Amino acid sequence: MSPTKILVIDDEPDFSALFKENLEDSGNYVVETECDPSKAVERAEAFRPDLIFVDVVMPAMDGGDVVSAIRAAPRFARVPILMLTALVEEDPDRPTGESVSGGLTFVSKTTRLDKILALIERSLAGK
Amino acid sequence: MTLIVLAAGWLAIEPSGHAGYRWLALAAVLGGSVLVGALMLTGGRRAAGGAGGGSEGYRLLVERLQEEVRELTARLATMTRERDESEHYIETLMDHVPANIYFKDMKSRFVRVNRSMANRLGCDHAADLIGKNDHDFFGSEHADQALEDERRIIATGQPIVGYVERETLPDGEEAWVLTTKMPFRDREGRMIGTFGISSEVSELVRAQQTLERERNILRALIDSLPDHISIKDTEGRYMVVNRAFAEFLGRDDPGSVLGCTAADFFPTEVVQELRADDEVILRTGEGVLNREEVRWSREDEQLVMMTTKLPLPDEAGEPYAIVALSRDVTRERRAQEALMRSERRLEDIIDNCPAVIYLKGADGRYELVNQRFERLFQVRREEVVGRTDYDICDRSTADAFRENDDLVIEEGEPIQVEEIAPHPDGDHTYVSVKFPLRDLSGEIYAIGGVSTDITDRKRQEEALRELNEELMAANERLRTAQEELIQAEKMESVGRLAAGVAHEVKNPLAMIGMGLEIVARRTGRDDEKLSETVERMRRGVERAKEIIRGLVDFSAARQLQLEACDLNQVVEETLSLLRFEAGKAQVSVEREMGRDLPPVLIDATKVEQVLLNLCINAVQAMEGTGGGRLRVQTRAGVLAGKEREGGVRSHGMLRDGVRYAAVDIEDTGPGIEENKMDKIFDPFFTTKATGKGTGLGLSVVRKIVDLHQGTIEIVNRAEGGVRATITFQAAEESGLREPGAAANSLKQRGERG
Predict the structure, then answer these.
(1) Which chain A residues have a beta carbon less than 8 Å from that of B515?
(2) Which residue of chain B has the CA closest to A55?
(3) What region, left, alpha or beta, does residue B684 occupy, with left being phi > 0 and alpha being psi -120 to 50 degrees?
(4) Cβ pair B514:A106 closer than 8 A
(5) Residue B427, number of CB atoms within 10 A of its CB
(6) Half-sphere exposure of B83 toward its Cβ, with a 13 Å CA cutoff?
(7) Cβ neighbour number for residue B98 with a 10 Å cutoff
(8) Structure letter (DSSP) for residue B237
(9) Quick one: B570 and B717 in the same domain?
(10) What distance in Å separates the CA atoms of residue B271 and residue B46, rounded to the nearest whole number?
(11) Do B511 and A15 touch (CB under 8 A)?
């Protein structure tokens, strides 16, 4: 079974590196990171991820713009996208702490790794 | 023969009518007869003796003589008796006739007077007057005149018959006498003096004088009257006219009018009118009283005459004349007309005056009221005059009116009071000026009043007071809102700081967390100490996360209390808060509320805060330029394309085709410098002087609008000033369903899922 491909778009290379290592250590994942949001679509085209994490607050292009750009390609229309940001707090009412608004799923960056892994699995399962 | 002579002598004296003289003559005649008889007797004897015989003849002669003497003696006795009788008649006449009779000699001395005359001159006996003259008894005025008269009589032989003269008696009494004076002649016709008879006619004269005087007074009276007075006979001829009427007819002498008719003075139509009038009066015997007639004066002035005509009946009761009395009342009529006009005018003023006007006697009875009064109490003035307030008002109202009236009488001065009068629509308040009216002696005889309905004014005052209170309350609310706004701005800045700090701190914290996960996995289970260290670090990270969460929770904006609202209502609320501020800055506020606005899902308090902030910015911008116009408009629409003007808008998160409700706030201020346009939503950016604003207002505004997923756009208007537009999507379109769903400011974009 080929590993699940996860693309992380975040302008913070240190965080991206630590996040990638944790994900790859924790399961059958291949993670690529992109620090430049303007290259997000190009990177996705090349990598063809099964799931994408997008930071919200980034210079030049924010997470919303990135999502719009990615979704513009039919290929990625149904790829799960999780907004990974320090802006939101975990929703205590949900087991995995995410929140949904305007059709987007927001995940706090400080969410514990096990919860994030559970959320990835659920998102890939299309739930 | 002797008798014939006697008779002739008697008769000769007859014309004189003087009994005294007649008797004197008689005596003389008698004397003469005796003498003649004696001579005849002697001669006869001689003749008888010569013819007859001596002693016989003598004896016969003697006998005849004796016979004759006897006869004569008898006749003398008879005559003496007769004379005495006559004298007695004369004496009786003289003594009792109620007239004064006198005889005077040629020198006007009294020779005989009767008793009446003597008494009149103050003497007891007639004899006392003999030899005296008028000057001894009368004043010289009369005496001289009498003397002159008598001299003339003597000179001319002509009597003075029946003239009336005035005598002043010795006792000073004046008397009028009717006198006839005649020449006194002897038997031979020689003038021997004068005699006269006079009788007192003082009463008659005085009566006549009185009559004359009365006649003159009456004449003077009718001539002095300004009224026209005339008496006409049945043929229409003037019998009497007074001076005024004569002058009216153009005659100076009233006498010259007598005998004339109206036709001599008046034009035909007047003559006919008068004649017809007179005929009726003569026929019916009824006069006319105080009838007004129009006449033309000789100067062609129109005159109004007040005429009375009455028939004058004779003893048989048949009218023989018509007396007419006519008064020129032109001036009175004009004065009356002028008075009526002036009264009419006064009445008009009083009646058309919008105040209630009235006049009450000192006894409280109405003497005059105007139309307004009639309308107020719904009575006609005829029903009010003579009655009191108690007849037209309820007792307590009348008591109140009376109390004020009494105050006027007591003070003797005008007063101004408020009075309540019942109206069909409830009590009305009047301000009444009441004042005393005084007669010539200064006594108050009436109270005048002018009452003005100030109910509306009262209501307006009340409304104004309420409005003012409302304004004060609104101002208070505004102040509170501003304080809240400032508080919100402060909180926003803290919040922003906290959010910024949280974001910045959470990133490294996330990295530490991620790193710890790696470290934890790589630490062997045997290295307990390191495992414990990693665990402690994890707890530290969790604690830091909790602290940040608390900080963010604390500083986060309140959650929106969303409700479907009518945007117009929110705008109205805002404007009511703004009234005071706008008035102070001399800014007029125009509003144009759109119709059929879709309900919007908003937190009304927050949106109010937004609108207020924008409006205050606008007002403050205009305040600097001395006022202006703030125009607030709401409208509904469907979003079609995003036209961009030269302004700034918040992140547009509305899609084409959605229905929306929008508010435009336009000012006529100086606008925003273009190079500052892109900074206006930045926190801490302000164009206001230090202390006037925190610079957080617009950033808060945008935050709130963003939370509502609305848009805000601020542009400089082409015609000057700024327009701020806030757009909210209609409630049915909104993605804002559940509270808290908008707790972040991220855009709604892309697909669901």
Answers:
(1) 18
(2) B507
(3) left
(4) no
(5) 11
(6) 19
(7) 7
(8) B
(9) yes
(10) 105
(11) yes
Same domain, B691 and B623: yes
Q: Over 90: is that where the pLDDT of B634 sits?
A: yes
CA distance A46 to chain B (A): 22
Tell me the HSE value of B630 on the side-chain side, using a 13 A CA sphere: 30
Give mean pLDDT, residues B215-230. Answer: 90
CB B662 within 8 A of CB B728: yes
| B289: enclosing H helix or E strand | strand B288-296
Residue in B506, B521, B753 nearest the CB of A110: B506
| B445 and B518 share one domain | no
Angle formed by the axes of helices B604-623 and B455-522, nearest 10° = 110
Q: Which residues pair with A100 in a beta bridge?
A: A105
Q: What are phi and psi of B209, to 5 degrees?
A: -60, -45
Question: Residue B115's CB: how many other CB atoms inside 10 A?
Answer: 18
pLDDT of residue B568: 92
Query: pLDDT tens, position by position, for chain A (127 residues)?
Result: 789 999 999 988 999 999 999 999 888 899 999 999 999 999 999 999 999 999 988 887 888 889 989 999 888 988 999 999 887 878 777 888 888 877 789 899 889 899 999 999 999 987 5
Is residue B575 located within the same domain as residue B710? yes
Query: Between B455-522 and B697-707, two packed helices, what is the crossing angle to 10 degrees?
Result: 80
Q: Which residues of B touch A88 (CB under 8 A)?
A: 744
Q: In this structure, what CATH number is given to the domain that contains residue B418?
A: 3.30.450.20
Shared domain for B329 and B414, answered yes or no, is no
Buried b (16+ CB within 10 A) or exposed e, B511-529: bbbbbbbebbeebeeeeee
CA distance A16 to chain B (A): 9
* Chain A 29-48, residues with CB within 8 Å of chain B CB atoms: none
Give the confidence band of B30 by pLDDT, cuts at 50, 70, 90: low
* A20 close to B (CB below 8 A): no
Residue B698 sits in a domain of what CATH number? 3.30.565.10
Are both B371 and B477 inside the same structural domain?
Answer: no
* pTM for the structure as a whole: 0.34
**DSSP run (H or E) holding B592:** strand B587-592
Q: Dump strand ranges (E) for chain A.
A: 4-9, 29-34, 51-55, 81-85, 99-101, 104-108
pLDDT at site B19: 47
* B119: Cβ contacts below 8 Å, ≥ 6 apart: none
| Residues B43 and B179 reside in one and the same domain | no
Structure tokens at B489: 């701005």
Per DSSP bridges, beta strands A99-101 and B160-168 are unpaired
B753 touches chain A (CB under 8 A): yes
Per CB-CB distance under 8 Å, the chain B contacts of A22 are 514, 517-518
Within an 8 Å CB–CB cutoff, is residue A21 touching chain B?
yes
B188-208 per-position pLDDT tens digit: 989 999 999 988 888 888 898
Check if A2 contacts B (Cβ < 8 Å). no
Q: Does A105 touch chain B (CB under 8 A)?
A: no
**Phi, psi for B79 (deg, rounded to 5):** -65, -40
Which residue, B280, B306, B334, sits at the end of a domain?
B334
B506 chain-A contacts, CB cut-off 8 A: 86, 108-110
- Can you give B248-281 as a three-state secondary structure string? HCCCCCHHHHCCCEHHHCCCHHHHHHHHHHHHHH
Co-location of B374 and B478 in the same domain? no
Site of tokens 């009445």: B347
Q: For residues B13-37, give the mean pLDDT.
A: 50
Domain range for B34 is 2-91
CA distance B523 to chain A (A): 14
Do A86 and B499 count as a contact with CB atoms less than 8 A apart? Answer: no
Pairing of strands B356-361, B238-241: unpaired
Q: Which of B91, B112, B128 is the last residue of a domain?
A: B91
* Joined tokens for residue B446: 């009436």
